[in-house]
Amino acid sequence: MLILRKYTSFFTSIILLLLIVNLKNAESDFEDLRLIKEFAKTWNFSKDATYTNSLLAGMPKEYNTIGYMNDGFGCQQPGYTGQYCEFPICETPNNKHFDHDNAAVLVDFIHQPSCSKNALFFVDISMFSFTIEVQAPGNNQHDISVYNRNGTLMNPVSTDTTDPTRKIYVYSPQNPGVYRIVPSTRTPELGCLIYVLATAHSYVNIGFVPSSQYDLIPSERNDFPNQNPYLHQHNTIVAHTTNVRKPGGITALSIFEGYNIMSRPHKFSIRYNCEFDYYYNSLFCLNEDQYFIKIEGYDFSGNSFSRIKSFSCIVNPNTSTAPPPTTMAPAPPPTTTAPPETSTAKANIYLITDVSASVPASMYADTLTNFLMEIFNNFKIDPEYVNVAFSPSPGDDDIWFILPVFNAFFSSETLRKSIYSSYYPIMGEQSPGQKQLSQVIGRALDSSFLTTGYNPSYKPHWLIYVTTTSSPDSYAIKAAQKVRESGVFKIVTIAYNPANNIQALLMMSDCFYPISHQEQLSAIATALAAKINFASSKGQDGPC
What we know:
Residues 1-26 form the signal peptide. By secondary structure, the protein is of the alpha+beta class.
């Protein structure tokens, strides 16, 4: 009996030693972990994440699903199934078969602006073991304690403190369920990042199908994805689970971007006759950069699980022309002609510029005028094509002189002159405040305004508001919400070097584009022009 116990103890020690060695080897070869650590260098430890709705936006379905019902017998549209044609059917299934071996997976990425709050993570039925790494700025090693759902403290099998900026805890296999991480530090205000990785039997493969007006079949029915999405183009995200036994599956996704930016969770849908049987329409990335996707779901036993994967947004190699430069040169002299090739898209755009003291003309008149014209110069500015109504939103001490109307601009040059001159108020100095913004936004629902040339058949319908650090008051937010609920316009807000106004601007916007570097101006102008052109080509008020 004593001999048996002796050998049992010996073999247990050997197993734990192999576990630690394997986990460390997995970490050294684990590309997603290496990449997310590089990516996290752009994140401010102590700054809250900014949620953006410009990365992920639900595309309208290719067909009016209710219209394809026939006498109660369900979908009659080829390529779709379900009672309401809600499920795409891939035209040709991908015959790729995925490996079924165990793999190192990144389970979670937790950002703690104040490293003093409890953080939850999930252990699923397929995980053999896991590692938690806590990273802090400077030479500040943070301690953690891990508790299971019963409140029992889980002791790690090893702790690595060789790097003064991080601490690594290795845990043996645990029962599936929710676990709680409790950080402990003397400097919680510095923030921390927590990585959870594991050796697991279940994982998720993802891909991206680019979408354009030239597609022979909709991207949601294409089962041959690329490894990475294309820049300034709608991309259908597709996914396939490996070793996730039914009824387990994946349900939602979120995207992490650099500089503390991330999307809110969005729901996956399923499709038939596809190897990549989950999809989401769609992703639109603005920067040629590294991104991460967090995929959430449930295992066979109903336990929550998550996986994080890396991807890069790249320039489409199949385009015949090179993309515009990603840096903006000093403001050129005013141009008198638009570029020789312009789109024939049709859209209704109501443009509002903040011309208060928060946007001093000496600093921003050239920059923001050139930025806006980099969008509009892609189109024919004319009531028959892109019909623009324009109004500045003056400071509190200035009078709102210019009532916007459609059918007012017949060239890019007249629009450019109006935008540029609006930063120099008739009364002289620019004044602070945006109390009149609610009236300017409210004009969007005024019948006397809409009858000047608003055309419901033109798509998209956007109200674009351009500002810097101004914060809309509650009246402006209510006016904006009323416009959004009406469906007459989607509200697209662009803030150059925003400060404490981000949350208020998010509350009034369908899509919000914060710009923190001048180098981003050209990329975002190109992306917005591409979105307008794409929505117009589809004849749909697609995502902004």
